[in-house]
Amino acid sequence: MANVNPAMDGKIPQADVKIAKKKRSQWFEVWLRLKKSKAAMVGLAIIVILIFSAIFADFIAPEGIDDQDLDRRFVSPSAEHFMGTDHLGRDIFSRIVYGSRISLQVGFIAVGIAALAGGSLGAIAGYYGGKLDNGIMRAMDILLAIPSILLAISIVAALGPSLANVMIAVGISSMPSYARIVRASVLTIKDQEFVEAAKAIGANDLRIIIKHILPNAMAPIIVQATLGVAGAILSAAGLSFIGLGIQPPNPEWGSMLASGRHYIRDYWHIATFPGLTIMITIFGLNLLGDGLRDALDPRLKN
Amino acid sequence: MHKYILRRLLMLIPVMLGVSFIVFTMMYITPGDPARMMLGETAAPEAVEQLRSELGLNDGFFTQYGRFIYNLVVHQDLGRSYKTNVPVMTEILGRFPTTLKLASLGVLVAVIIGIPTGIISATKQYSAFDNVSMVGALLGVSMPNFWQGIMLILLFAVYLGWLPASGFSTPKEMILPAITLGTSSAAIITRMTRSSMLEVIRQDYIRTARAKGQVESVITNRHALKNALIPIVTVVGLQFGYLLGGAVLTESIFSVPGLGRLMVDAISSKNYPVVQGGVLFIALTFSVVNLFVDILYAFLDPRIKSQYK
């Protein structure tokens, strides 16, 4: 995965080459450890296949997202329709392939929002301490007092159901865990000598936090983010399932499942395949997340 | 200890105030006029305006929020449902026991499956049982519970015809919803029990117990499990809160007449006082359960008790 190795993205200025080399070896070692874990590799393979199908959906899916044909409603899985067709005669496999775009988008953007907002708040709280810390963390405690799926449901209910609002709702509801993780890391790092050295040469707070503290606090954030994408996809599917998420005819997995649910007594395949896809996706992300945690911090491994 | 409990109870006040502020703000920014919703689309503008001033909807945000808190604290009043005009508190209290029962059964399923599986996995690390249960646990966490519910209905209600597909009044009707709700928590508890036990069974005192010839089952249950319980209890407590939230989806699959279903219906009909009251109620329960878990620590670990002052 690209974000496992940020030092290889080619954007490193010449002067930093030496540091980059060291960084590269550090991340390279993580990659070597990760590679040893078969489970993590299976997870990575699932995610790569998913990203691949999201990008090349136009070539992979035999039909479009809303190609209705009422003459072939409820067709069972066959050679022609690998996963069958739904109540409007749409090819389920095609919709699942296109649906990967929506789910991955929701997963990554919601986690992006959560990590950016929660992480910044956590960094500020940990770095400055005192009243600011207390204020921010108590606010996070309040958010944590509402079960996250419920918080997401109420935010979408207030903002109205749409793709963007689902991302915002899921992002906000998972923000506190990032704030806590980043704050904890910042607290352990901020008193170290290299931070003092940076202060001594006159670096400002923003530079210290971004350049010196955060790179050293990346490991738990990456693990949380990987597992967070899984959680975000699940939450978004849950929201769509109760009609609060992405609206039809867009092929969101959760809403496909919800519409198939009404025909479950006669046509099992409509609800089964979207759910199976969600499960395999989340399974892959969890495998990768577990593997990353072991690779980034071998001490934690049991 | 009493002082500690009292202090924690007092700390609930600012948290609940914060939750109520968030929930109230969300309802305030939601588009739509409550007065018009109560009277219906065809009502005369004058009647709507009159109801608006009666309900105080023309006042400023903070005046309205203050009144909301005052009514809640002094009269235990959460407003009235737009749909039925019944006090929200009455509706919630009528539904809450069902949700509490469902969540408790879910936790029960999770604990009954999770803790023994976790213990066996840890004592037989890397065995076939361990590998299978770890993959099973990961699958359990990965399965969306609304999908699992539908699959269970498909198998046990549609194909086998053993269990009913909906309802929640007889024990038979409670089996599928409880399993659906409890599965992912069972998986999380299994993983936590395993890792907590693994940490403990490497300690010296376990080796000592073994060296003095103690029976293996006593070592596991009395020496190891007791010391591994703290993180497990924490997770069980957190799961309980999570299940109260997760009940929203499970209840709508199995048509369980609980608080979650009431809220989903309220959301789709834009009946916000009910949504607001429901979220507040569940958040309060969640916080009380967490407090209870913290107090339980003291009984599990005397070292913690001495810190509670």
UniProtKB/TrEMBL annotation, chain A:
Domain of life according to the entry: Bacteria
Name of the molecule in the record: Peptide/nickel transport system permease protein
Membrane topology: Multi-pass membrane protein
InterPro entries the UniProt entry points to: BP-dependent_transpt_permease, MetI-like, MetI-like_sf, OppC_N
Transferase listed as a keyword: no
Membrane-spanning intervals of the chain: 39-61, 108-130, 142-168, 221-246, 267-288
Entry-linked PANTHER family: D,D-DIPEPTIDE TRANSPORT SYSTEM PERMEASE PROTEIN DDPC-RELATED, OLIGOPEPTIDE TRANSPORT SYSTEM PERMEASE PROTEIN APPC
Main location as per UniProt: membrane
Residue intervals of the ABC transmembrane type-1 domain: 100-289
Annotated CDD domains: TM_PBP2 (cd06261)
Entry similarity comment: Belongs to the binding-protein-dependent transport system permease family.
Localisation: Cell membrane
Keyword Transmembrane helix appears in the UniProt entry: yes
GO process terms (BP): transmembrane transport
Keywords: Cell membrane, Membrane, Transmembrane, Transmembrane helix, Transport
Any matching Pfam family: OppC_N
GO annotations of cellular component type: plasma membrane
TrEMBL record, chain B:
Listed PANTHER family: DIPEPTIDE TRANSPORT SYSTEM PERMEASE PROTEIN DPPB-RELATED
Membrane spanning stretches: 9-29, 102-123, 135-162, 174-193, 229-254, 274-300
GO cellular-component term (any): plasma membrane
Organism per entry: Natronincola peptidivorans
Membrane topology value: Multi-pass membrane protein
UniProt lineage: Bacteria, Bacillati, Bacillota, Clostridia, Peptostreptococcales
GO molecular function: nickel cation transmembrane transporter activity
Location in or out of the cell: Cell membrane
UniProt similarity note: Belongs to the binding-protein-dependent transport system permease family. OppBC subfamily.
Domain (ABC transmembrane type-1): residue spans on this chain: 96-297
Name listed for the protein in its UniProt record: Nickel import system permease protein NikB
